[in-house]
Design goal:
single chain, 395 residues, mainly alpha, three-stranded antiparallel β-sheet, 13 helices, 12 strands, 44% helix
């Protein structure tokens, strides 16, 4: 503001003087050179050649940088996204395993454990402005991925058990003293005493990375701006930013109500976390804790069957906890109980029929049946959901 009125001011020079510009990955060709349009590439070779361009090495935090330093190497999405994102990284790890980069998968899981050690949870991404929220807690699935291919699974579970336990405590904070019919942070206790989870953010202000957009969204709402900001942030924690599944009117972002929903996908991921904790405690000789978490997982599975299953429509759906009813929106999130082996065979068959009839389109699976203009709605499809759909199974 001070410098722009001075003679000879150039914005480009100012930016280069005060900011570190992101580097962008080039697209390598089969010989390692830049890829020209029209080249016929073998897709596996193309992906293998891309990994080095997307790998970031550990570094110290630079002064005034928002980047949270990580102790080991990691893979970023690329383009303007020059940091890791939590749940995306699980699917990146699946690709790295296919490419034989188990070493990098282990490094990334250790980075997530480091974030949990430092901050008590895995932030949305390794940026300081993401510290008030997380994302779907796929850390347990990441640990399972390593353990399944390890020569000594016990060593894997022993290394990551403290981080698994601490992440669970983060998501269940307040559950021990929460009264039925009440919510606190990421926990909702239903009227019958069942504890389940929702998305949340500890701040109720515009997101630093989308400040202007959030202010405009709040201006179009008919409720306090702080409530809108909280729900927008909670929607960002879900990874579904944004979708008609969070919108009361199904169309406008100003009607967002993320914290009013208990999401079926989040609670399926929490079941996976409880199951992994039970296995980790058992394999490290802590039989009492293993039994406790097996019981927690079974209670959550029963709640998913009871709360999220709509038998009339033959599908899983989010739950509006204050209204005591399932949402009428069909989304690809309904497939998460199949991916984690929670659905019964009968539920799986009925879900498959609904998906074929209502979500499957030429080219793949759409994210929802609503065309709202939001990126997590029709006609868009997202790679993680194509994968989860093909890998879905029943209990």
């Amino acid at each position: 503001h001070e410098e722009k009125g001075r003679p000879g001011f150039e914005l480009a020079a100012f930016v280069h003087r005060h900011f570190t510009l992101p580097r962008h990955a080039r697209v390598p060709g089969p010989d390692g050179s830049g890829c020209d349009r029209g080249q016929d590439l073998d897709v596996c070779s193309h992906i293998d050649a891309l990994w080095p361009e997307l790998i970031r090495l550990p570094e110290e935090t630079r002064p005034h940088s928002s980047l949270l330093a990580l102790p080991e190497s990691y893979v970023v999405p690329g383009g303007r996204f020059d940091e890791i994102y939590y749940w995306d990284s699980y699917f990146t790890m699946l690709g790295l395993e296919e490419s034989g980069r188990d070493d990098l998968v282990l490094s990334m899981v250790r980075n997530f454990a480091s974030l949990i050690d430092r901050y008590g949870h895995v932030p949305n991404g390794n940026r300081s402005y993401y510290l008030s929220r997380s994302q779907p807690p796929f850390f347990a699935a990441m640990v399972e991925l390593i353990a399944d291919g390890a020569s000594d699974p016990r060593a894997v579970y022993a290394e990551f058990l403290p981080a698994l336990s601490r992440e669970y405590a983060f998501w269940m904070d307040g559950s021990d003293t929460l009264a039925p019919g009440r919510a606190y942070r990421r926990v909702v206790r239903l009227g019958d005493g069942t504890p389940l989870n929702r998305y949340w953010d500890d701040h109720d202000t515009p997101r630093e990375e989308s400040y202007h957009e959030d202010v405009l969204t709040a201006e179009g709402a008919d409720r306090p701006p702080a409530d809108v900001y909280r729900d927008v942030r909670a929607g960002a924690e879900s990874g579904w930013d944004f979708s008609s599944r969070w919108l009361e009117d199904g169309r406008t972002l100003a009607s967002i109500r993320t914290t009013a929903l208990v999401p079926v996908d989040l609670n399926s991921v929490m079941f996976q976390l409880e199951t992994t904790l039970a296995r980790a405690y058992a394999i490290t000789g802590q039989s009492g804790k293993a039994a406790e978490f097996r019981e927690r997982a079974e209670r959550r599975k029963a709640a998913i069957w009871r709360i999220f299953w709509n038998d009339e429509k033959g599908l899983f759906a989010d739950y509006l906890w204050q209204e005591d009813r399932t949402s009428d929106r069909l989304t690809a999130a309904a497939l998460t109980p199949l991916y984690f082996g929670i659905a019964t065979p009968a539920q799986a068959r009925r879900m498959a029929a609904v998906v074929r009839d209502r979500l499957l389109q030429p080219g793949g699976l759409v994210t929802s049946t609503v065309t709202s203009g939001e990126q997590w709605d029709a006609p868009n499809g997202w790679a993680p959901w194509q994968w989860r759909t093909t890998q879905g199974r029943n209990a």
